[in-house]
Specification:
This protein has seven helices and twelve strands. By secondary structure, it is an alpha/beta fold. It has one domain: L-arginine/glycine Amidinotransferase, Chain A. The strands form four sheets. Strands 1-2-3 form a three-stranded mixed beta sheet, sandwiched between helices. Strands 4-5-6 form a three-stranded mixed beta sheet. Strands 7-8-9 form a three-stranded mixed beta sheet, with helices on one face. The longest helix is centred in the first third of the chain and has 17 residues. The structure holds arginine.
Length: 258
């Protein structure tokens, strides 16, 4: 995770961002700290990367890399505003002894590359490109399933789909995907939790699950109830200040699969 010391919304690279609306950095810091403490209370280990001045979106650690089996695929950001985050995250891993590979094309890390027990689900349409899907499949040796995103509000796969593990496998918003990708998701995950647009609109699908406990935005009340009915334990956190940049719990979290 990366502390939002320099968090701001002073450019707009997705429809959630309004540079004219005020942002309360202290509030963002407090909300982020609660997320960090929530993970620790659940028994997870959290490592931190130092934030860099001038990179207000660096708090969204999910975009910094993709880490599977101790191998790290670096990120290359679509927009120049975030370009310097890629090397910063890759350095963090390289200095800690991980095997790293630089991105060869636009790749926004776990924003678009989500690992399930069988596949690497890979979003495209707004940020990560198809070459990155191929690079990830080759590096990790996991079957990549390309999914086409169609709604600019759900510009990263992790805003439209949550990997839950457990009986449902995933939760997702069908409306965020092309017709073909919806068919693919229905085939692969017939028991998936289908989220409502109301819950997706508070970034409810931007969640982190350990297979049972699901850390999600506290505003996603309907989704929390659906999860409870399916045997999961929803853990609500309020990240409303970071949502002004288009991010939620999952965006703030890069999973290090050593
Ligand atoms: N403002 C950031 C951007 O548009 C938000 C990134 C959110 N991260 C995520 N994993 N969805 O790039």
């Amino acid at each position: 995770m990366c502390r939002p010391t320099y968090f701001a919304v002073d450019y707009a690279i997705n429809p959630w961002m309004d540079p004219t609306a005020p942002v309360d950095v202290d509030r963002a810091l407090a909300q982020w700290t609660t997320l960090l403490e929530t993970y620790r209370a659940l028994g997870h280990t959290v490592d931190l990367i130092d934030p860099i001045p001038g990179l207000p979106d660096m708090v969204f650690a999910a975009n910094g890399a993709t880490v599977i089996d101790g191998k790290v695929l670096g990120s290359e950001f679509r927009f120049p505003e975030r370009a310097e985050e890629g090397p910063a995250y890759l350095d963090w891993f390289a200095t800690r002894g991980f095997v790293t590979q630089e991105a060869k094309s636009v790749n926004e890390g776990e924003g678009d590359l989500l690992l399930t027990d069988r596949y690497l689900l890979a979003g495209t349409g707004f940020r990560t490109d198809l070459h990155a899907h191929a690079q990830a499949q080759e590096l990790f040796g996991r079957p990549v399933v390309t999914l086409q995103l169609v709604d600019p509000h759900f510009y990263h796969l992790d805003t439209a789909l949550t990997v839950l593990g457990g009986p449902a496998g995933i939760a997702y918003l069908p409306e965020a995907f092309s017709a073909g990708s919806r068919k693919v998701l229905r085939q692969l995950y017939p028991d998936a939790v289908i989220a409502s647009e109301i819950d997706a609109a508070v970034l409810g699908l931007n969640a982190v699950s350990d297979g049972r406990r699901v850390v999600l935005p506290v505003q996603a009340v309907g989704l929390a109830n659906q999860l409870r009915e399916r045997g999961y334990e929803p853990v609500g956190v309020d990240l409303s200040e970071l949502r002004k940049a288009g991010g939620g719990p999952k965006c703030c979290t890069l999973e290090v699969r050593a």
